[in-house]
Predict the structure.
Amino acid sequence: MNQHWHWQTDDRGAYLTCSLLSNWQHGFFTQAFYPLTPESLTSILQPNTTAHRVKQVHGNVVLTPAEISQILESATSDRKFADADAVLSDRSQQSVWAASADCTPILIGDLVTGQVCAVHAGWRGTAKKIVSQAIARFLAAGSQLADLRIAIGPAISGKMYQVDDYVALEVVRTVVNDADLAPKTVLQELKTWTNSPILEDKVPGKVRLDVPRINQIQLQQLGLNDTQIAIASYCTFQASDRFFSYRRTGEKKVQWSGIVSQ
């Protein structure tokens, strides 16, 4: 699974890259770079580029830097960041960023246009199909599905992510076509899928949920194929030497993932 993934080193530590995104300067950074911000991390990827991020609110809003500027300019309060969970470049030499500490970071690039997007996909954002919203924005800007490349970065793994049945249902409903199925039937059906995003849990009313896998299925259902998508197998919960995990420690610390537009 990690054939596409490679560790790069910097004076401060190691960060992860994906060969599907080799056309772009990018990185899934680790806890070694905390508390550096995107503005500082950008210099590691490509100096003299502008960094763009948002206040992540577990939704499905995708904003461009121009849209972020418009929101902040029209705000009545002294806001520093616009509310959204994905940033889509609208010019060259922009770095776009997403923060995570168990949620799924997703970096997307268009081989032809050079446009890029950084997505924060927790279970709530995944239930609202944020990655589908990001793809829709690419297509609206003139992209073709075949030209997109997607790297789904380190997140909490399915076998470690215990959730209530109702949480799992909100998420898996996005990939099950028959909305009339009873809740228990939906979860049972998903458990029979190859590489299922739903795993058994010993506690009644609980299951294990693979959020990165759900995002992969959503992308596949949009028409992208497996050669266009790579999923990192590193689990933020288990890899305590590499990544922060809110589920593991309860600390509000994050690692950043970013990509620079061409």
